[in-house]
Specification:
The strands form six sheets. The protein has a five-stranded parallel β-sheet, with helices on both faces. It has a two-stranded antiparallel sheet with strand order 1-2. 32% of the residues lie in helices and 25% in strands. The protein contains nine helices and 15 strands. It is α/β, with parallel strands linked by helices. It is globular, with a radius of gyration of 21 Å. The mean pLDDT is 95.
């Protein structure tokens, strides 16, 4: 028999919640359904930082929708910078424990510094808004650091699961037309080391458009490095500045591409715009 037990939150918890219970949620949902433009427009104005406000909340021409037309925004700025002038700057943004037991805690301020340093690395390598990157990494803090750095510069990224084969990786690199791959020498999964860089090397045999591969040293097991193309993360960030302003991007600028699994055919990429709800 299914466990039907329920646990009611304390009155103080309910009072401090953004949505204070089922009735409040029902009202919120109804308002969103009755006036989606007003609902999302109010949230966008009150909850997000915009470099330039939009001229129109929604331009809907089925099946295409454009949100916050003319607005300028940056996802990395909204994740990090807007918290730096508040008490949150010293709060934990990432609390992480690796499979071997290593631990790290990054505050918003510390995460901002790491993201800015890596964004400056990407700028120094010549990457700019509109370029595309594949992120193929183990579950380490450098993964969100990489994607936030890409978002900071307007580099459209796609995160590929670190357990995928070289063939699956190759197909996504080719479809995205990526010029950059961010990876690691390897990672751990279920007690076993998974070699990532060798998988990247195999995939890139048929991806001539990739000009840079940035490799984070995670396992320390060593990885073959191709001169001129492959670069160690720690070497590049060693002298990088911690100051990197976020690029004001059009609300419709592609933030990331999420691919289907590909189990029933070629993976299909779904593009998520920077300012889309």
């Amino acid at each position: 028999m299914a466990d039907r037990s329920s646990y009611s939150p304390s009155p103080d918890f309910v009072k401090r919640a953004h949505v204070s219970g089922p009735d409040a949620y029902a009202r919120l949902r109804k308002r969103a359904a009755d006036d989606p433009e007003g609902f999302w427009g109010e949230l966008a104005e009150n909850e997000l930082h915009w470099f330039e406000k939009w001229s129109r909340t929604l331009d809907w021409k089925a099946p295409f929708a454009k949100w916050f037309v003319g607005g300028k925004i940056n996802a990395s700025y909204n994740c990090l910078d807007r918290h730096l002038t508040t008490h949150r700057k010293n709060k934990a943004a990432i609390i992480w424990e690796g499979e071997p037991g290593d631990q790290r805690i990054l505050t918003y301020q510390e995460l901002h510094r790491e993201v800015s340093r890596f964004a400056n690395v990407l700028k120094s390598r010549g990457f700019k808004p509109g370029d595309r990157a594949i992120i193929y990494m183990p579950m380490i803090p450098e993964l969100p650091i990489a994607l936030l750095a890409c978002a900071r510069l307007g580099i459209t990224h796609s995160v590929v699961f670190g357990g995928f084969s070289s063939e699956a990786l190759k197909v996504r690199i080719q479809d995205l037309d990526a010029a950059l791959v961010i990876t690691a020498d390897g990672g751990w999964r279920r007690g076993k080391e998974v070699a990532l860089k060798s998988t990247v090397d195999e995939a890139l045999l048929e991806c001539p458009g990739v000009r840079d591969v940035i490799v984070y040293r995670r396992t320390g097991s060593g990885a073959p490095m191709k001169a001129g193309r492959d670069h160690w993360w720690h070497d590049l960030v060693a002298t990088a500045s911690e100051v990197c302003p976020a690029e004001p991007l059009d609300s419709e600028h592609p933030l990331f591409v999420l691919y289907t699994s590909g189990t029933t055919g070629k993976p299909k990429g779904i593009v998520h715009a920077t300012g889309a709800p």
